[in-house]
Amino acid sequence: MKERYDDLPNGYQETIEKGLNALHVFTHISRGIGTREEQLKRLKDELKNANAIVIGAGAGLSTSAGLTYSGERFDRYFFDFKRCFGITDMYSGGFYPFPDNETRWAWWARHIYFNRYIDPPKPVYRELLELVVDKDHFVITTNVDHQFQRAGFDKARLFYTQGDYGLFQSVNRKLQKTYDNEEWVVRALEAQGFVKDENGIFQVPNDRDIQMRIPSGLIPQCPDDGSDVVMNLRSDDSFVEDEGWHSASAAYADFLKKHENDRVLYLELGVGSNTPMIIKFPFWQMTLANDQATYACLNYSEAYCPEEIAVQSVCIDGDIGDTLDEIH
Questions:
Q1: Mean pLDDT of the chain
Q2: What would the 3-class secondary structure string for 7-52 be?
């Protein structure tokens, strides 16, 4: 099935190749040149004057927006799973060996809804959009929470490389398709006892009387052949890269090609060390290849760049939302 996309540019593969090339080029790390004030001023100037902006976003951006996977948010929505199974955060809960499918899908219904179908507590994504909306921009992200589109970013300018919490895929590999899950998520939350507040957002009822299982008849199945489904999240080679994914990959490749010699700002936000080949390393490589380019890394405690591009880089340590507020 994937052969149908062979004629399209493959932005994902191209960016991985750039990341691999970077491994052989960069050797020493820098924290950037100049004071924080000087780097903030330079970032603001590049946001204003760049011909194009490529945003690379990781989990740190959603964390800054308040979509935390542990602490108060976890205890509010998953207190019963914590009490019964000892799970302490949403990330590790996604790998927990639940005793049955009814419990596992009850977990995933909550996980999906509270990270995909509601707005984050803080307006970080909307503030980011305000900074780039009048510029030619494109977003590549490893996040799967759909928050760019919820904030108003144009879908045609987004490439979600690792999947989407809002999609299922069949375990039948012959079906290289994905399926929207919002309707199912709503029914699964209602079945657990969640209730909508005055804003139409599901909440735990005041008596906290909710179930950790859904009825067997609500276990999701593929609408095409009745097979089991799994989340459309990249974990191995079974990940479905559907038509929308390939179109976004091609759009990303086209955008990079169009601006490869322009004054480009590669704006990296909250990217950690789990998937550097997708955003961080390729951004370094593309900055090195273009003396008009600027690489900006905004991250909490992980803001750095290679020495080889330090003069072209901005590294700002701190909360991303606070930093965006400073340059508005």
A1: 96
A2: CCCCHHHHHHHHHHHHCCCCCCEECCCCCHHHHHHHHHHHHHHCCE
Q: Which domains does the chain have, with CATH numbers?
A: 9-64+123-161+242-327 (3.40.50.1220), 72-119+182-219 (no CATH)
Backbone phi, then psi, for 327, in 5-degree steps?
Answer: -105, 0
Give which of 167, 194, 192 is closest to 179, Cα–Cα: 167
Q: Which residues sit opposite 27 in a β-bridge?
A: none
Q: Are 240 and 176 in contact (CB under 8 A)?
A: yes
Distance from C-alpha of 197 to C-alpha of 201, rounded to nearest angstrom: 5
Q: Strand locations in 47-133, DSSP E?
A: 52-57
Angle between the N-to-C axes of helices 72-85 and 101-116, in degrees from 0 to 180, rounded to the nearest 10: 170
What is the C-alpha separation between 207 and 198, in angstroms, rounded? 17
Scan for tokens 């977990």, then name that residue: 107
Q: Torsions phi, psi of 303, nearest 5?
A: -95, 110
Question: In 10 A of CB 26, how many CB atoms?
Answer: 17
Q: Is the Cα dihedral 229, 80, 66, 273 positive or negative? A: negative
pLDDT band at 81; cut points 50, 70, 90: very high
pTM here is 0.95
DSSP codes, 224-257: TT--BEEEEE-SSTT----HHHHHHHHHHHHHHH
- Report percent pLDDT > 90 for the chain: 92
295 in Cβ contact with 82 (< 8 Å) = no
In the chain, the amino acid numbered 52 is A
Reported as a single tens digit per residue, the pLDDT across 146-192 is: 999 999 999 999 999 999 999 999 999 999 999 999 999 999 999 99
